[in-house]
Design goal:
By secondary structure, the protein is of the alpha/beta class. Helix content is 41%, strand content 19%. The longest helix is centred in the middle third of the chain and has 21 residues.
């Protein structure tokens, strides 16, 4: 990958989240070019404060390099994507924008749907509107999406599906800015994900709760997610959505591997409001518009005629679902040993 971020001014909305912090660490490492600045835009001053401390207290050599880079480059701004004026002001003097701000917890969005609309849809519209109306010289905007935006059955997925469309349509409103998206599944061990939940339940003596015996989910590492986003920045055409080719697992297998023979029970609690048994990253209808993208990603072409390029031979036939790319139990165990955080690995999986 080229030095695509060299001397760029980068804004990350929702930058204090798990994905945001992984993204920022990679940016500050200089691996893909060292940015002139990286600005975190979010509404929680406490999370920004602890993020500053986290970057200042790294002990590994590579992290020390990141902190040295961050002292002059990492910046913080308080604001909310729901507030057009604060967002528009933060967007000034930016070259690349990663839009990661979202309400993403499925149950929370089910019980507060309008709040999800305001953040996930209105926030995206505020960003596109600011770039368009103020004619901001932003090169690229990347909307960070989710597998739940594909064939959505819950509020979170519905709002993220519309968010994707808002960003893609932004190409017609701000012709000098490239609007693209990245869509991926569950990030392993991120805040609010299933692995930390299962481990916490195991440490408390169980039971481990699974909603349904047949449930499957895509599994990616934070690095996989960042790789997908960066591949989109480097190669995506305006209006394209990048999707990683990734594996998935049964939740019963995930629980079994983490329990690892301990006397811990498993309970099936039933499907929660808005929850799917299997997730999809690409629907059967979308697969007709897929081509091979960069670095093991699918590129989903826009439905808008003004942005679409012909797809003579789709890269994918049929739906890309979490029940079709399943890892075996042994493959899952090896995947977890390789990728779950070191602190977890010391207690689990024989590491």
């Amino acid at each position: 990958m080229s030095k695509i971020f060299e001397d760029k001014r980068i804004l990350v909305t929702g930058g204090t989240g798990s994905l945001g912090q992984a993204l920022i660490k990679r940016l500050l490492s200089g691996k893909n070019g060292l940015p002139e600045s990286v600005t975190v835009f979010s509404r929680d001053e406490a999370k920004q404060h602890y993020m500053r401390l986290d970057f200042a207290q790294q002990s590994k050599a590579t992290d020390e390099i990141i902190f040295e880079n961050s002292k002059n480059r990492l910046r913080f701004r308080i604001g909310d994507v729901r507030d057009y004026h604060s967002l528009a002001d933060a967007l000034r003097n930016s070259d690349i924008v990663f839009s990661a701000a979202a309400l993403k917890q499925v149950p929370s969005c089910e019980y507060a749907p309008w709040e999800a609309v305001r953040t996930n849809i209105e926030g995206a519209e505020n960003l596109v509107r600011a770039v368009s109306e103020l004619r901001l010289p932003i090169e690229t905007v990347v909307g960070i999406s989710t597998d739940k935006a594909c064939k959505p059955v819950n509020v979170m997925g519905m709002t993220k599906a519309i968010q994707e469309r808002v960003y893609i349509q932004g190409n017609l409103r701000a012709e000098n800015t490239r609007f693209i998206a990245a869509r991926y599944g569950n990030v392993l061990a991120s805040r609010g994900s299933v692995v930390p939940l299962f481990i916490d339940q195991i440490e408390r003596g169980g039971p481990v709760t699974i909603t349904a015996a047949e449930m499957t989910r895509f599994l990616l590492t934070l690095d996989d997610a960042v790789d997908t986003i960066f591949s989109a920045v480097e190669a995506a055409l305006p209006g394209e959505t990048y999707i990683p080719r990734c594996s998935s697992a049964r939740m019963v297998d995930l629980a079994d591997v983490l329990i690892d023979g301990r006397d811990i029970g498993v309970e099936f609690s039933g499907i929660r409001p808005g929850e799917k048994v299997h997730e999809s990253l690409l629907s059967a209808e979308e697969s007709a518009r897929t081509v091979m993208g960069a670095d093991s990603c699918y590129a989903l072409r826009s439905m808008l005629p003004e942005l679409s390029a012909p797809v003579t031979k789709p890269a994918l036939e049929g739906e890309f679902s979490s029940d079709t790319t399943l890892m075996s139990r042994d493959e899952l165990a090896n995947f977890l040993k390789q990728h779950i955080p070191e602190a977890i690995g010391q207690r689990y999986l024989g590491s």
